Amino acid sequence: MESYKFICIECPIGCNLTVEKNGEELTVLGNTCKRGEMYAKLEVISPKRVITTIMRTEDGKIIAVKTDKPVSKTKMFEYVEQIKSKRVKSGAKIGDVLIENIEEGANVIATSNPY
Amino acid sequence: MRNIDLAIIGGGPAGLAAAISAYDNGIKNIVIFEREDKLGGILNQCIHNGFGLTRFKESLTGPEYANRFIDGVLERIIEVLKETTVLEITKDKLITAINSEDGVFQVEAKAIILAMGCRERSKGALNIAGTRPAGIFSAGTAQKYVNIKGYMPGKKVVILGSGDIGLIMARRMTLEGAEVKAVFELMPYSSGLKRNIAQCLDDFNIPLYLSHTITKIEGKERVTGIVVSEVDENKKPIKGTEKHFDCDTVLFSVGLIPENELSKTASVELSPRSKGAIVDETRETNVSGIFACGNVLQVHDLVDFVSEEAEIAGKSASNYILNGKENSETVSVKEGKNVLYVLPQKLNVNADNTKIFFRVTNTLKDVTIKAESGGEVIFSRKKKVAVPGEMETVLLSKEKISALKGEVVISAEVE
Predict the structure, then answer these.
(1) Numbered residues of chain B with Cβ closer than 8 Å to any chain A Cβ
(2) In B, which residues are within 8 Å of A10 by CB distance?
């Protein structure tokens, strides 16, 4: 049996999580909610993070963005480069999808209006 | 001179939530004074996620969280004076402000809500030796450069202070291509959230040196390096433990100071412990009709709690305007063993159920949180760990408060 330890990043409590791996079966200990269990299991299988950064609009303004779902942790730098290299239409507004499917099922969306 | 019902000083998360709450409780004649050119305060530059889990049950970024309240203010057509700096408030609630359109002008309000937030403690407050090269920033200033202006303030970075802003900036600068060499923390623990240590430092293998401080900054035109030393239990650097780091940028994330200059001009009494106003459970200060909420009152861990506190202040201010002041008996709430500050510091005996917020002075294990009054324990709760970085609460019911005979003492005792 293998055992992994994580600090949960789902909420400010920051539970100390332990995952016990028995063959394919994962058992999570130390979580206080369902999100924590999901997080711990994913941390063992394929860690994911939400990326937040900024993009520029065609007219040079800045707009804050995020991935609307967590994406592969190992590809974070690659995705940030990809996001930074694109220009956003100047009329973009908060909530707009700016890049579709940067990773399967995850879009980059605007989290602010351009400033 | 213009007369209004309610003036709100500051258009950040506290001011916005207070305005909405006051409006919904019957006060329509409100003016929000905001010195920046847009509403939202510091949330605008906090583009990371993790806001709003308590309040909205989802993980929002700072601008998204702010936008929900900005929309609320716009929907209610509450007046906002942007790029307007308040210069002085008197205890008679006369406000002197300035902007480029109206010049200096005065407004008289029936009630005022102080929601000015905090500013960062600067490097100057720390007595660090060295010259004055470029490349030294507070973490919040660096955050503004990166997230609002789109500039990178440096390439090789060290950070002093492991509060949340410092941790968030370690990740942010790393993702933008900088090399963050280390984070140093004077205390033997980080005041940042555990999840931020995990996702901002551990994810990127950035080392955190606890009980360390910067003892020298090197460089003439630009920072070229720093010297750090380990500190002893009295936080004094230990000779012989010096380590050198090459860097071109030093960020300081060494605490927030409630911005109470205006509170002082209004003769609002401040607590040397919380660094904010002394208030009762309605968030009214010692000056009748002047209320305070958000980080100018106490430095909060989460913006969700700022909004909650601002709603109390908004509701109380509208009550005050509509119904006048009720003169009720009050009892004091005091800091007991291992408690840094309590808030509110006063309780009206006719108060509703009230949450008393407090922070412990140091990390405590197997702790009993207690409220005592007149030699009787009126609240008690056990906790595995209590840390200064996390606000604690004691809930007192209406019945318990009405039965109070004397002051309440909050303590955190280790068995």
Answers:
(1) 38, 44, 47-50, 53, 59-61, 63-64, 67, 146-150, 175-176, 193-195, 197-199, 202-203, 301-302
(2) 195
Nearest CA in chain A to B44: A112
Query: pLDDT band for position B202 (50/70/90)?
Result: very high
Q: Cβ distance B277 to B268 under 8 Å?
A: yes
At B111, the amino acid letter reads A
Taking CA B207 as the corner, what is the angle to CA B218 and CA B45, rounded to the nearest 5 degrees?
Answer: 80
Kindly report, residue by residue over A29-55, the tens digit of the pLDDT. 999 999 999 999 999 999 999 999 999
Q: How far apart are CA B112 and CA B91, in angstroms?
A: 10
CA distance A22 to chain B (A): 25
CB contact under 8 A, A12 and B53: yes
Q: Once rounded to an integer, what is the mean pLDDT over residues B276-285? A: 98
Shortest Cα distance, chain A CAs vs residue B8, angstroms: 24
Quote the Cα angle for B384-B387-B391, to 5°.
105
Sequence-ordered strand ranges (E) for B43-162: 49-51, 60-61, 79-81, 85-89, 94-99, 103-114, 118-120, 129-130, 136-138, 156-160
Strands (E), chain A: 2-7, 16-22, 25-29, 48-49, 52-57, 62-67, 71-72, 87-88, 97-103, 106-110
Q: Which residue has the tokens 């998360």?
A: B13
* Cβ pair B175, B146 in contact under 8 A: no
Between chains, do B147 and A50 touch, taking CB under 8 Å as contact? no
Integer Cα distance of B168 and B161 in angstroms: 11
Question: Strand, helix or coil at B271?
Answer: coil
Q: Which residue of A has its CA nearest to B172?
A: A53
The CA distance from B398 to B204, in Å, is 49
- Helix B13-24 with B62-75: angle, nearest 10 deg: 30
Distance CA B8, CA B86 (A): 10
3-state secondary structure of B254: coil
pLDDT in tens, B115-145: 999 999 987 777 777 778 999 999 999 999 9
Please tell me the distance in Å from A80's CA to the nearest CA on chain B. 7
A35 neighbourhood in chain B, CB within 8 Å: none
Cβ contact, residue pair A14, B38, below 8 Å: no
Report residue B197 as tokens.
Answer: 């240590």
* B150, B198, B202 member nearest A54 (Cβ): B150
| Pair type for strands B156-160 and B249-252 | parallel
Contact B176 A80 (CB under 8 A): yes
Q: Are B401 and B354 in contact (CB under 8 A)?
A: yes
B384 neighbourhood in chain A, CB within 8 Å: none
